Amino acid sequence: MMKKFAAAILALLATLSLAGAQTVQPFLPGNIAHPALWHVTGEAGEVYLLGSIHVLPPHVQWHTTPIKMALSRTDIFVFEVPQDASAVSELQGLIQKNGFLPPDQKLRDLLHPKFRADYDAAVKSSGLDAAGVDRERPWLAGIQLMFTQISKLHYASSNGVDSVLLESAVKNHKPVRYFETIADQFALLAPDDRALELEEFEAGLADLRDVSAGIRPMVRAWANGDQARLDELINGDLDQFPKARKLLLDDRNQRWVPQIEAMLKEKHVFFVTVGAGHLTGPKGVPALLRKAGYTVEGP
Predict the structure, then answer these.
(1) Domains of the chain: which residue ranges?
(2) For labelling alongside 192, which of 227, 258, 269, 290 has CA 20 to 30 A away?
(3) How far apart, in Å, are the Cα atoms of 167 and each of 24, 164, 192, 227, 268?
């Protein structure tokens, strides 16, 4: 289950920041990355597609020559979700409203006894206040515990591709659009089925001991432009959770394609940056656009 949480967290980290150190061991020689880039042509407009890893270590150099050229031609930038102060405030409000257990409940008490040792170990390892975590709903506790593990790797959303590009777009007074709202993405994390929420949290507690085992290979595949491996790591993990995959990836890809088709009818060059998992495999956005008859250059 924590793999489900991890995929969802990476989808949302565009709006949440993690504190990270400014030095880190390179995950590739020289921290040089060559992520895949797609170019789509339509009736009047053009769209570039770049997959983002929403959290990265500092100093990763991913501005390849093709990406630089695409950025120089871009009129309008497109991202998954807003990241401004208003968006962060809205997200915090949603968490306050939907992230905590009733006053008479504690998370540890809700767990089956066999999972309590893993829970205690995860909380202790995180360094978080145990009483505070115990007040949270399973989905929020899972995210909090995952965040602390990611921060230990010195990965931060401020280094993420979408954060860097959005900052540049705003600085250069470029128009910005979004596919989704904060409420849309928040709904991906806070499930209605409380029994399933707890079950999934319990099933993923053991995975919290080594978050790097999932995230570092994902970043490496993205940096190498290895779409097959990236699809296996991001989307393959969700195959065991078909409902989650449909909710987190497939349905959203289907909703985004008509929006991209509308862009292709405008006389503009768009640069679309979304989570890398949305661009891989036969159900990814590039594949759906090819299936719809568009010319898509790229892997």
Answers:
(1) 2-16+32-297
(2) 258
(3) 23, 5, 34, 26, 20
Judge contact between 29 and 94, C-beta under 8 A: no
Q: Do 276 and 11 contact (CB within 8 A), yes or no?
A: no
d(CA 228, CA 287): 13
Q: Residue 49 — φ and ψ, nearest 5°?
A: -120, 125
3-state DSSP call for residue 287? helix
**Triad 27, 297, 231: Cα angle to 5°:** 45
Measured between alpha carbons, how far is residue 81 from residues 168, 213, 251 in Å?
Answer: 16, 27, 16
CA 231 to CA 28: how far, in whole Å?
20
The string of pLDDT tens digits covering residues 184-226 is: 888 877 878 888 788 878 877 877 766 777 778 888 899 999 9
Average pLDDT over every residue of 131-158: 86
